[in-house]
Specification:
The complex is a heterodimer.
Chain A lengths: L3 E4 L2 E4 L5 E7 L7 E6 L6 E5 L3 E2 L7 E6 L2 E6 L9 E6 L6 E2 L3 E5 L1
Parallel strand pairs in A: 2-11
Antiparallel strand pairs in A: 1-3, 3-8, 4-5, 4-9, 5-6, 7-8, 9-10, 9-11
Chain B lengths: L2 E4 L3 E3 L5 E8 L7 E7 L6 E7 L5 E3 L7 E6 L4 E6 L8 E11 L2 E7 L3 E5 L2
Parallel strand pairs in B: 2-11
Antiparallel strand pairs in B: 1-3, 3-8, 4-5, 4-9, 5-6, 7-8, 9-10, 9-11
Chain lengths: ~110, ~120
């Protein structure tokens, strides 16, 4: 199975801060990497597919980059509605696997 | 609009089974694969398996092999996930999710609302 490791596990940031979350795969997954946002009590919501494709309706302050084994999710200017947990997921092979999540909290 | 609506919360005793449904609407049911993902309290999302809705082929996580069965009823536009021999550590929210697979991208674009399964004696 492909292991997905995110860092950090949690972070505290202020409104307007630039936030970066990293995700590392245990083997190359080319660009089969997705990012989801999850708020408490809700299902995950797709933000970015194929490492860097922003989904329709997702604000442009979100961006993704990377390929192979190392990937990054960046929020350019943190907004109040962005406080949530973010998960990376590889879709290169089954089982589909997720990172452990990064909880973004208010400083 | 695309919707996946799951059945309601369940409380089960250890050793029992549960069957969760996922009714699709707003798209051609047989055109997309459906996956099942669970999330135990405070834990990461965990993939359980998927069904190719068009032909009924399935694949399961080795962790759950032998305990999970995913099926579909195409006239009813509904998929099911049955989980047997439940243990307390199976207490989790169970989600169905539709997977898009196109041109070098493969992702879950729509999710059900989740079904809480509580296993307790």
């Amino acid at each position: 199975d492909i292991q997905m490791t995110q860092s950090p596990s949690s972070l505290s940031a202020s409104i307007g801060d630039r936030v970066t979350v990293t995700c590392r795969a245990s083997q190359s997954i080319t660009s089969y990497l997705n990012w989801y946002q999850q708020k408490p009590g809700k299902a995950p919501n797709l933000l970015i597919s194929a490492a860097s494709t922003l989904q329709s309706g997702v604000p442009s302050r979100f961006s993704g980059s990377g390929s192979g084994t190392d990937f990054t999710l960046t929020i350019s200017s943190l907004q109040p509605e962005d406080f949530a947990t973010y998960y990376c997921q590889q879709s290169y092979s089954s089982p589909r696997t997720f990172g452990q999540g990064t909880k973004v909290e208010i400083k | 609009q695309v919707q996946l609506v799951q059945s309601g919360a369940e409380v089960k005793k250890p050793g029992a089974s549960v069957k969760v449904s996922c009714k699709a609407s707003g798209y051609i049911f047989t055109g997309y694969d459906l996956h099942w993902v669970r999330q135990a309290p405070g834990q990461r999302l965990e993939w359980m398996g998927w069904i190719s809705v068009g032909n009924g082929n399935t694949k399961y996580s080795q962790k759950f092999q032998g305990r999970v069965t995913i099926t579909r009823d195409t006239p009813a536009d509904t998929a099911y996930m049955e989980f047997t021999s439940l243990r307390s550590e199976d207490t989790a929210v169970y989600y169905c999710a539709r997977e898009i697979d196109r041109g070098g991208a493969r992702y879950f674009d729509f999710w059900g609302q989740g079904t809480l399964v509580t296993v307790s004696s």
